[in-house]
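Pasting as-is:
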Amino acid sequence: MDRIPVTYFPVATQQQLRVNHERIAGKPYAHYWDPTLWLRAEVLPAIEQPMESEQALRFDDINALLDSGYQAVENGYCEMPDGSAYVASLVPFPGCTGEMYRWWFWWHAKESERYTLWYPHNHIGVRCLSPERLVQPGLSHEERYVGTTHHVDEYIGPDRMKLAIHFLDPAELGLDTARFEAAGIVGHACARVSLRSEPIDAATMVHLARRTADGIEQRSRYWIGHAPKLRVLGARIPVDALGTALGIKRRMAGARVGYEQLLHDQIEFSHLSTFLADIHREFGG
């Protein structure tokens, strides 16, 4: 597998890297800190230009992700006709297991320094709003994060984002979990994502870890600007048609955000794949 070094870092993320390096010093897992980032050469064509929007997986067809084989486009981004964005991303995790994958999605949220291991330049902080779940005895890995909300601060491209990630049971998004075993699905992280800076639910995110001959692979899909809802006085009011008519979706998502999300996903998960097995071996017990 040819690895292409990542060499472009916006100034703000260069500064964040220095801050994160100072924060992680002295942590028992600090030896996993490595700011060397890379991309698989085979992904570059998907980053260089958008896919055709006709090739995007419709959200209503989400269970196609449980079919054997691969879709026509496993790595790509595009702007949809309504201005929303679609992203598909595939990252192999050789030598890793579903156990490791499921463990990571709650373990990293216990303190922000762990989160920075994942993407040293761009990850700033994470806070689980149900911290007691992270340490409660007797829970499975999924029970420690599914149903919780993580407040995440990170850079996606040059933009500093303040997000709320609401982790869901995949069935809540319409995935047929009865098919997971036959489809080789050994881990998942599915969520609705909200902007904390604005009162709007912004995106749907699906990560599915599938067993392979040499480990696992993560197949991800993002529908950005999908089914937006305005949060008003505790209620969530659908604003899909209005968002399309006023061009709000295109300003909130569009091709630029789709591109940045694909690049971000590929970098952070490719990086995680290099140390997940080792850090789980040391701290997963």
